Amino acid sequence: MTAVRAVLLDLYDTLAWTEWPRLRALFSERTGVEPRRLMNAFATTRRRRALGEFESVEGDLRAVLEAADVEASEALVSELALLEGEVLERGVHLWDDALPVIAELRALDVPVGVVSNCDHSTRPIVDRLGIAGAVDAILLSFEVGAAKPDSEIYLAALDAIGNPEPSATVFVDDQAGYCDAAAALGMRTLLMQRDEASPVEGVSEPGDHRVIRDLRAVVDLL
Questions:
Q1: Are residues 104 and 57 in the same domain?
Q2: Residue 71 CB neighbour total at 10 angstroms
Q3: pLDDT of 129-140, one tens digit each?
Q4: Which CATH number belongs to the domain containing residue 215 in this structure?
Q5: Is the distance from CB of 181 to CB of 157 less than 8 angstroms?
Q6: Separation between Cα atoms, residue 40 and residue 101, nearest integer Å
Q7: Are both 61 and 132 inside the same structural domain?
Q8: Is pLDDT above 70 for 217?
Q9: Are residues 142 and 179 in the same domain?
Q10: What are phi and psi of 77, to 5 degrees?
Q11: For residue 127, what are the CA distances in angstroms to 43, 80, 100?
Q12: Among residues 9, 1, 45, 57, which one has the least CA distance to residue 173?
């Protein structure tokens, strides 16, 4: 088997967890939208937000409100953007193994990239958590204009970390569909299923992917 020369990691529910239920409850309280309908609005706009189509945090939130049939006044959008920023400033947390494993990989001269499907709210998060300075590249879908499982974001990530052979690259994600796309490009895949995680997109059936519970399993492949 080809030696591991590079690692690509998902962000949410792989490296970090989010106090999303608390934010969802605050949004529901402020807008008067029943939580399930609000969740559906986030879900139906997820792909377009991840591609950066709405151009800003405010644009992303406006799209969610419109999907929930709420009048997206400038005042409400601005209030929710401020609320989201305040919650996410302290409401996104790295798992304890995240930075130590990344540091160990890079100490072994294994480049590490982060590949995340996300909207405009994520850039301040990665900067605050110190991820940007800990890895070799960060590919945020709304900045790239492509999102998993599109091949473009995987290829951009490989290019950003020095173009390792896909067969020498390990891709780690909590969604089997995104691992499927990486495997189709020739990468080795690990499906992250942390015991404490509750992925927004649900818990995946493993399929052909090896399931891991923590990032130490990545180091064990070296």
A1: no
A2: 8
A3: 989 899 999 999
A4: 3.40.50.1000
A5: no
A6: 35
A7: no
A8: yes
A9: yes
A10: -60, -45
A11: 25, 21, 17
A12: 9
62 and 163 part of one domain: no
Quick one: tokens of 95?
């798992």
Interval 66-111: pLDDT, tens: 999 999 999 999 999 999 999 888 899 999 999 999 999 999 999 9
What's the pLDDT tens digit per position in 28-39? 999 999 999 999
In this prediction, residue 111 carries a pLDDT of: 97
201 and 149 part of one domain: yes
Domain hosting residue 175, numbered range: 6-18+93-219
Could you read off the pLDDT of 118-130 as tens digits, one per residue? 999 999 999 999 8
**What's the average model confidence in pLDDT over 134-163?**
97
Specify whether 41 is located in the same domain as 121.
Answer: no
Residues 106, 136 contacting (CB under 8 angstroms): yes
Strand partners, 94: 16
Instruction: Return the closest-CA partner of residue 61 out of 139, 129, 119, 3.
Output: 119
Give the number of domains in the chain. Answer: 2
Residue 182 contacts by C-beta under 8 Å, 6 or more apart in sequence? 8, 154, 171, 173, 189
* Residue 76 contacts residue 58 (beta carbons within 8 Å): no
Write the single-letter amino acid at 129.
L
